[in-house]
Amino acid sequence: ATDFGIKDALQQLGVKDINNGTSTGSNNFSTGEIIESYSPVDGQLIGKVKTTTRADYDKVMDAATTAYQSWRDVPAPQRGDIVRQFSNKLRDLKEPLGKLVSYEMGKSLQEGYGEVQEMIDICDFAVGLSRQLNGQTMPSERPGHVMREQWHPIGPVGIISAFNFPVAVWAWNTSLAWICGDVCVWKGSEKAPLCTIACQNIIAEILKENNLPEGISCIINGDHKVGEMMTTDHRVPLISATGSTRMGRIVGTTVAERFGKSLLELGGNNAIIITPTADLKVVVPGAVFGAVGTCGQRCTSTRRLIIHESVYDKVRDAIVGAYGQLTIGNPLDEKNHIGPLIDKDSVNTYLAAIEKAKAEGGKVLVDGGVLEGKGFESGCYVKPAIIEAENHFKIVQHETFAPILYLIKYSGEVENAIVKQNGVAQGLSSAIMTNELKEAEKFLSYAGSDCGIANVNIGTSGAEIGGAFGGEKETGGGRESGSDAWKVYMRRQTNTINYSDELPLAQGIKFDL
Ligand code: NAD
């Protein structure tokens, strides 16, 4: 891996003591057991991080709650300026941070850089937003009265993130939360702990340069047990959690029990509907990138193609043909399309899913399997598979976080395809490929896709930060990133002000004294 400049990248990011002792990073009070981070790229140990104990956690929360008291006093546009400085630093460090993402998580280098670019983009969005945290005014029914709505900071925000976007999801949350006047406590994925340390180092430097307390941005390390310290903590009014539906079910109910708010970004089971008029030039790259990009480890990865029977054979052959051209290997080498899965557990889940699909009657069109030999020593490289299946198969109904694409046939009108597309428990991303205006509009209508994201003539993955991101049903209902997603990081207050000399009651109620 040193060939690809990983050592230099880690040094530039201040991630210390590689392969020798622990990497503590800044504002990381952690003193607990050690997590070792192994790269799925080559199986090498990259570094070690200490987990957060209960006593460490309380120190972090003290730092966060104290910092909140002064951070909320800073005017929002000035908070935006801190985010601007942070994004400039990210521009400087795009290369090393993108490399670390690629090496620790296993996505292609281009996607690693893309993830850092997403951080920069959301920061730019947040800077502009820092002057637009606008409330409304409403006419009062009472003479001499005005009504208005204000948005206030909510407090320390807890962020729990998944391994597959080990840096961008944090930035989606923090950049907005910071301009809103909140401080953030982040538990990154235990599968990519060095990415967490690197990000914290970057913001810590900006805060220091501006004489601001580092408690504005805090990290805690470890698995679900560390996450639970935060989800059960009444000092954390909002938990933003990204990960599996299994995790979201636990986090959502735990936070609700204490009347906290949660923003849940959970699993997807995303489909593309391919209609008779679909343009193959668009379908093939859209479907193939959607299915194999990030080795099928995006929440928006394409899992199902729902293809009209009249074009089924043509589409199937084109996609199977394209799979033949894919190169699998070290993701830091830009000639490879597909890198490894995150770990061997994930490889086993992938293999089991293929067996389950076969057992339910699925027909394998492109066979999967684990790659062995030189360059594949980590044991995490797999071949992307294509399986002809039925939508109701149990395994098709389930999100397998790996490159397995199910081909499903539909006949008749587009409504039949929409029923299949909606016929899963998850509701994140969806797409239709068509040149028929009526089909596209039906798909986007209230009776169409039931997902949070619905696209026409592009695939299911690769969202831009300008729109609100998230999904319905078991995807959890949360929205992050663009549009008015910022509102979740604030509390709304309605004000009624009487500037008259009387006290008329609402609804004309009389109360004579
Ligand atoms: P995961 O659910 O195993 O872990 C996600 C995070 O939750 C980790 O930081 C983990 O430590 C933490 N966690 C797990 N159980 C917890 C608990 N009980 N209390 C507190 N924290 C807990 O998911 P993963 O394997 O890291 O990521 C893959 C999953 O994430 C997929 O299902 C994918 O679709 C989903 N995902 C969704 C989005 C989205 O925006 N909708 C984005 C990325 C990933």
TrEMBL record:
Active-site residues, Swiss-Prot/TrEMBL: E265
Class of the enzyme per the UniProt entry, highest EC level: oxidoreductase
UniProt-listed PROSITE patterns: ALDEHYDE_DEHYDR_GLU (PS00687)
Record keywords, A-Z: NAD, Oxidoreductase
An example Gene Ontology molecular-function term: aldehyde dehydrogenase (NAD+) activity
Domain Aldehyde dehydrogenase positions: 33-494
EC number: 1.2.1.3
SUPFAM superfamilies: ALDH-like (SSF53720)
Keyword hit for Transport: no
Subunit structure: Homotetramer.
Family to which this protein belongs: Belongs to the aldehyde dehydrogenase family.
Protein name (database record): aldehyde dehydrogenase (NAD(+))
